[in-house]
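STRUCTURE REQUEST FORM
Protein name: Endonuclease/exonuclease/phosphatase domain-containing protein
Source organism: Acacia crassicarpa
Requested output: structure tokens
Priority: standard
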Amino acid sequence: MNCLIWNLRGTGALSFPSLVRDLKAYYRLDFLAVLETRCSREASHRRAQRFGFTNMELIDCEGYSGGIWCFWEHNTFSVSVIERHHQYMHFRSQGQVDAHGY
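Status: completed
Returned output:
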């Protein structure tokens, strides 16, 4: 399972969705978390749907701080959100074990 957690500090660049798709393909990402999105609720959902993941959970920013986006592929593992807060997301993941035991 390949995961990327990225403290981005803003998702406003027009090239950002294609960058995420490129990273997803190159690294074969199963899970991506983007922190400090600094993106409005409307723009968050619109942009996030273009990243190419089958599932997502978004926490909107408050003012000009925060924002957490988590994306994952449903055929690799499942994610259950246990608790959401504007500064964190607590979840449980279950999935297939690879050759390395992960």
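Reviewer notes: The CA atoms of residues 58 and 69 lie 5 Å apart. Helices lie at 16-27, 41-48.
Form closed.
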